[in-house]
Amino acid sequence: MLEPGHNNQLPPIPPKRYFTIGEVGELCRVKPHVLRYWEQEFPQLKPVKRRGNRRYYQRQDVILIRQIKSLLYEEGFTIGGARQRLSGTGELPKPAMDTTLLKDIISDIEDVIRTL
Questions:
Q1: Nearest CA-CA partner of 10 in 58, 52, 73, 53
Q2: CATH topology of domain 4-115
Q3: What's the confidence (pLDDT) of residue 100?
Q4: Contact (CB, 8 A) for 41 and 79
Q5: Where are the domains of the chain?
Q6: Could you tell me the pTM of the whole model?
Q7: How many other C-beta atoms lie within 10 A of the C-beta of residue 65?
């Protein structure tokens, strides 16, 4: 799901046991409120909660968040489609939009603009 080409764009995950929501946001380039929303939408994402409901994410949570981000932002899945894809149940949904096709169209339009 998370293509190797996209791993270069994100910082490496440090060898720590737990990460705060702010650290995970920086590692995955996702805002904390988005992470809290994804916790409600994806049952697989369950950070440990301690002292005053503070969230502590583990390495596998960070990897899962990167997969969710890839499905939603790069592959064009809806929340429901990404949830179904991660759970592995039922027929795999198709992405909402083929992003590679869209990028090709944008590139073609830019070429036409340059020639004009």
A1: 73
A2: Multidrug-efflux Transporter Regulator; Chain: A; Domain 2 (1.10.1660)
A3: 73
A4: yes
A5: 4-115
A6: 0.69
A7: 23
